[in-house]
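[retry 2/3] Malate dehydrogenase [NADP], chloroplastic: previous attempt timed out, resubmitting with same input.
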Amino acid sequence: MAMAELSTPKTTSPFLNSSSRLRLSSKLHLSDHFRHLLLPPLPTTPNSKISCSVSQNQAPVAVQENGLAKTRKECYGVFCLTYDLKAEEQTKSWKKLINIAVSGAAGMISNHLLFKLASGAVFGPDQPIALKLLGSERSIQALEGVAMELEDSLFPLLREVDIGTDPYEVFQDVEWAILIGAKPRGPGMERADLLDINGQIFAEQGKALNKVASPDVKVLVVGNPCNTNALICLKNAPNIPAKNFHALTRLDENRAKCQLALKAGVFYDKVSNMTIWGNHSTTQVPDFLNARINGLPVKEVITDHKWLEEGFTESVQKRGGLLIQKWGRSSAASTAVSIVDAIKSLVTPTPEGDWFSTGVYTDGNPYGIEEGLVFSMPCRSKGDGDYELVKDVEIDDYLRKRIAKSEAELLAEKRCVAHLTGEGIAYCDLGPVDTMLPGEV
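[retry 2/3] Malate dehydrogenase [NADP], chloroplastic: success.
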């Protein structure tokens, strides 16, 4: 796909300044809704530069800085075009651009997620976004392919796409970071090895966010083991509030709602107040005690309490494994949907009386859970990206015993990565039981 990139003399208009320069998604196919924002058409001159939007030089290139080679990220194709807008032509409805970083951007989960972000399904139909896509040297061509598809999709809200392999470049000024990229667990790999290998990735990404991201960046860790990876990331980003880090447990919540709805014979939108407590592992605790169906306690609607205590948790934990058995691969689309749900829960007000689950820092929690962990708990939001822990929840002996088991596991994982959190020498005592969720091996 070829396109023209036109160069014009600099304007001296008093209305133009750095704050009024916005990158627009496409010069050639902007909707009429946005055309009135543009200056008159740029004149074609003999010096007009013609470039191909998909070319080899779109990938990060090495540049010299103080004699050292440094990886530089590049805007991609049509997203490199910049238009000047007159200050008085900017409408009141125009929202400030949101910068969103996604790591593992060439993977299957991202392949579903990025198009939901670009469509406005997450941040709203009037919110322009910029996508900053982080990959590895091995995946750079795949990243170019992703950028090409985003180009061809003509999303009017997608203003910029940057691709790169250096988190210190890609994370520059981002306000949201969705960290999906992590090493999968190979045959014979011990949990302790996976914690160390992926922990190093998230330690480095935490340092990068700490140095170059927006000071109030919101971080959602998806790469597993996500609770402990989120802890490592936040410990390496001391300038960012610890409260801003989340571990994704929303897919577990969605699966739990599905199982309760199936058992009760209702549609899943009738299930509310669902909490996943603890670690994203087989020690997680789907909470049927506080959940509601049609506004009633679950135990009043589902009278098979043996199923609730035994079959329910197991069905949630084994859902991913069953999907692999049926389809031959782990979940990607449903994971992307759960990421969308997790973010929307933070940027839209929580319905009155309801809550949602997310893995967050335990300092100051009202449940008696050990501080210094990332633990899935019930939260509410006013829609401003922040949240508060729900205080009006019931915890009986059954629930407390199971929460304590997940808490103990996360404490063991924390000891295993102490060398990555600045808390001393690592010591692994994870025990013989493998608690990784099916589908994540």
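[retry 2/3] Malate dehydrogenase [NADP], chloroplastic: The CA atoms of residues 373 and 411 lie 7 Å apart.
[retry 2/3] clearing retry counter.
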